[in-house]
Structure formats: C-alpha cells, structure tokens
Amino acid sequence: MTLPGMVMALHIGCGVSALILGPVAMRARKSAGLHTKAGEIYHWLFVGLFISACVLSFLDWGRLWWLVPIAVGSYAFALLGYLSAKLRWRNWLRFHLTGQGGSYIAMATAVLVVNLGTDSWWAWTIPTIVGSPLIAWITREVA
Asked: What is the pTM of this model?
C-alpha cells in the first residue's frame, strides 16, 4: 500500500469510528464511565483525523490545500469541547457542547462533501443548518 493509501485508510478509520462513537457519548449518562471514556476516545480519533487530513493535503497540495484550514477549524471545535470538560472553567458546559457539537457537524459535512462532491452547496450547509439550532437548544436546556 502506498503512503497516501495508508494515510487515507487511517483518515477513514478515524472518521468512521468517531462518527459512530459520537452518538454513543451523546446518549450515554453524563457521568464518569461510558460518556467520559467515549469522549476521550472521540478526542483522540479527532486528533487522528486532523493529522491525517493535514498529511493528505501536504501529499497533494495543489489539489487538497483547502483541507488544512478545514482540519484546523474542525479540530479547534473538538479541542474546545475536550479541554472545557477537562478543565471545567466558568461556563464550561456551554463550551463543551458547542465544541463537541461543532466537531460532529464538521465530520457530517465532510461525509456529505466527499460522497456528493465539493460543488454540492447543500452538502456544505445542511449539517450546520440542522446541527447549530440543535446545539443551541440543548445548550439552553442543560447549561
């Protein structure tokens, strides 16, 4: 297998695993146990997504340069959610929900864009249009 093929396999594996694990963490009881373990694994899968996206873009910069800013922004959401839960600063739950939700929206967007094409405007917008109000509602209800 070539280097790009191995990196792509890692990227897909991390992405699929995080997409499956996200709802597990969302539905789990919010206490130490399944929720925190799933969240920890989700974060490290997202680190793998971030690194592999950057490597893929560097391997074919002329065609995939745009993956770097998207990867940085997507991981920024995941990192915000992760650190806010770890450090528990003031209003941490709002940041946790926004960060984790935003990172999941980024992954859902990526799945749609990859499968429907970069020219599909709705693949780029529907996850945000659907997910952002859900995050806002959940945050208002619990934080």
From this structure: 0.93
